[in-house]
Amino acid sequence: MKSLGLVMIGSVLLGGCSNATSKDGAPASIAAAQAIAVVAVESQRLDTTLSLPAQITPYEVVDVYPKVTGFIETIAVDRGFHVRAGELIARLSAPELLAQRSHAEAAVQSAEAQLSAAQAKFAADHGTFLHLQTASETPGVVAKNDLLVAEQTAMADRAQVDAASKNVQAARDSLRGVTQLESYLDIRAPFDGYVTVRNLHPGALVGPASGEPGAQPIVRIETTNRLRVVVPVPEAYAAGVKQGQQVDFTVPAYPGRRFQAPIARIAHDITQTTRTMQVELDFRNADLQVTPGSYADAEWPIRRSYATLFVPTSGVTTDLQRTFVIRVRDGKAEWVDVKTGVTANGEIEVFGQLQAGDLVVRNATDSIRDGSAVSIQHK
To answer: CA angle 261-262-266, nearest 5°?
Structure first.
């Protein structure tokens, strides 16, 4: 009986607690609604800049290989030399080309001699034909068969002259080809620039790039007074890129200093492996301060032609399965799935079932459960 009395007293006490009210008369469960800070969703046009990594490359760069195989006889430039378009870089020697030239010249002379002989024979036989043709006008002087034979002989001689003329032309073309190959022994700069690499020295055997495996270029030439600043722009930021738009960038060699160049070339294609679009700035490096091969940070302009929704960056959270904001509506928390865009000035773009003016939790956390009772914290 004593135990039963204790149980009944405990039940009364529990019943009394369940009917407790707050100081303002509201039930305790309502009074315990979590008070949270909220902020209104804003609609605005994105206009900001984003730091993107970039690579500085020469406007033009070439590894200089010879067009023919030969030995380097002389080389006139070294690393750091400035060269002009057409300037002699190196001279090769190739004794076999001298032999080819002699053979080609002899072939031309032989073909010309054969042409002269064919022309002489044609002239003689054609003269005979004309003489017989004149004589045949007197009946009985020349047999008709003799006139026909003379005509056919002259025609054959003409064909021989035509063939010999073509042989002469072919021999001359062959000689011209050898002469052209000889001109390749002088290697000249294709454009103005600086020699940045020199691999070989006099006496080295060199050949075309498509020749023996491991063939090395003699030198590398780069333009350094005009550079390409290559910016791989992420797919999300590729819209709205305009040719001619000025972009600031910095390089590690000059901390705190900004350079500027216009957007000159746009790939208009997203690279599948990196999901970026290659965009090039055209930088005039007249004082040669910026060095090709350097990395750069480009202050990339991000703009949209239409308004999008923004919330504080702290207003977006995730529970590892979904990314969402917490909208407060009718005293309850509501998880709204969103996709995020660009972050700017402490705010982030959000795309989802939201409208401008909706109230969302300023500091969202998954501890505020979907559907839980909340109250707005007033300042």
So the answer is: 125
> Please, how many CA atoms are within 13 Å of residue 337, restricted to the half-sphere of its CB?
3
Query: What are the CA-CA distances from residue 69 to residues 91, 188, 197, 295 (Å)?
Result: 12, 16, 21, 38
- Please identify which residue in the block is written with the tokens 């590894």: 63
Q: Name the residue among 285, 289, 299 with its Cα closest to residue 247.
A: 299
pLDDT digits (tens, 9 = 90+) for 51-85: 999 999 999 999 999 988 899 999 999 999 999 99
Residue whose C-alpha is closest to residue 51's, from 204, 250, 198, 202? 250
Residues in the chain: 379
Tally of CB atoms within 10 A around 338:
22
Max CA-CA distance within the chain?
172
Give the integer Cα–Cα distance in Å for 75 and 83: 13
Instruction: Report the 10 Å Cβ neighbour count for 318.
Output: 11
Amino acid at 108: V
What is the residue-averaged pLDDT of the chain?
87
Handedness of CA 314, 315, 318, 323 (dihedral sign): negative
Contact 156/164 with Cβ under 8 angstroms?
A: no
- In terms of average pLDDT, the best of 18-22, 145-149, 355-359 is 355-359
Percent of the chain topping pLDDT 90:
63
CA 264 to chain centre: 12
Local structure of residue 223 (DSSP, 8 states): -
> What is the 3-class SS of 289-346, one letter each residue?
CCCCCCEEEEEEEEEEEEEEEEEEHHHCEECCCCEEEEEEECCEEEEEEEEEEEEECC
**pLDDT tens-digit series, residues 283-342:** 999 999 999 999 999 999 888 888 999 999 999 999 888 999 999 999 999 999 999 988
Between 218 and 4, whose confidence is greater?
218
Q: What gap in Å lies between CA 47 and CA 11, rounded to an integer? A: 65
Kindly state the tokens that stand for 213.
């495996």
Please give the pLDDT value at position 212: 63
Strands 295-312 and 347-352: antiparallel
pTM score over 0.85: no
Q: Where are the alpha helices (DSSP H) in the chain?
A: 2-18, 28-31, 95-135, 144-183
Q: Are strands 88-93 and 186-188 parallel, antiparallel or unpaired?
A: antiparallel
